[in-house]
Amino acid sequence: MLRIISPGFQTTVQDAGRFHYGHLGVSPAGAADPVAFRLGNRLVDNPENTPVLEMTLLGGTFEFGSDVVIAVTGANCDPTLDHQPIPIWSSLTVRAGQTLQCRATREGARAYLCINGGIAVPKIMESAATHLQTGIGGWRGRALQKGDQLELGKGSHPLPFRARSVPKEQRTYLKNRALIKITRAPQSDFFTDRSLALLTAAPYLVSESSNRVGLRLQGAPIERGKTDELLTEGISVGAIQVPPDGQPILLFVEHPTTGGYPKMANVISADRCKVGQLKPRDEIQFQFVDLEEAIGLLREQERLLAQDAFIFA
After folding, report:
1. Domain containing 92: what range?
2. Angle 34-43/168-175 helices, nearest 10 degrees?
3. What is the pLDDT of residues 250-267, one digit of tens each?
4. Is residue 130 very low, low, confident or very high in pLDDT (cuts 50, 70, 90)?
5. Is residue 222 one of the residues assigned to a domain?
6. How far is the C-alpha of 302 from the C-alpha of 283, rounded, in Å?
7. Does 149 map to a domain?
8. Is there a domain that residue 11 lies in?
9. Is the same domain home to 15 and 52?
């Protein structure tokens, strides 16, 4: 068992997400930073889609009921084990009765606690991901609370475990979050060239009203060239909508599956991990790329992740 001494601000069970259910009004949810999620599972010898704990802005405190291998990835939350600092992006063995404490995140919004064997929760619609808007998946469809006890999955790796860490090249790649690359979207022609240029001309501030549904951005208001009304249509993760006030909304992992605001751009797949680490008051800059470059950047990211060149202790 994993006992929750303190849950932090918003700690949930997440996997890669829940797909193929958009027609039922259920968006994917899943890990907001898919790269930190995948690397964390690799560090502890889990299949990449093994459920983990995602901590947002403020980490939790957890007591382990058995000997396990863990790794903390994503934003630096200054983790300690029995009050002794431990590194992030590295695996280590935890003994029964030891306590892990994670604090407020630095240089990012979300940290991941990955445990060999994962979190043993039932799958709903083929996924263990918590979808907070609908209250399904994860641990009772909600964020963790003090006193919760989560069953851990059966570990696949015998102890003792040889510790490993993510190499510097991959960590350096993940630190560059200020520039978000985007492509044009279905209603880009609703906006003038001036409006499209305005989106990339100056930074936007992430509003404090942002969450897993979407990031509300504050900056130069975007004006529409066309004022035609839209029929409600499907929405994808990463879509940038422009409501009547001209302040863009970047839709994220628990986005509504349909909407009627025009979409002027879409975040490329390779930069989803950057969006997952944005916190309130962060500044971001957008840059348009074409589809060919977007696909190339995703392939480059997959090549980097496929290296699996962990550093062993």
Report:
1. 2-166
2. 160
3. 999 999 999 889 999 999
4. very high
5. yes
6. 26
7. yes
8. yes
9. yes
- Tokens 């751009």 appear where? 265
Residue 157: the pLDDT is 60
pTM, two decimals, is: 0.94
> Do 78 and 219 lie in a common domain?
no
Residues 153 and 188 in one domain: no
155 shares its domain with 49: yes
Q: Are residues 111 and 131 in contact, defined by beta-carbon separation less than 8 angstroms?
A: no
Domain count, the chain: 2
**Residue at 311 is within a domain:** no
With beta carbons less than 8 A apart as the criterion, state whether 7 and 150 touch: no
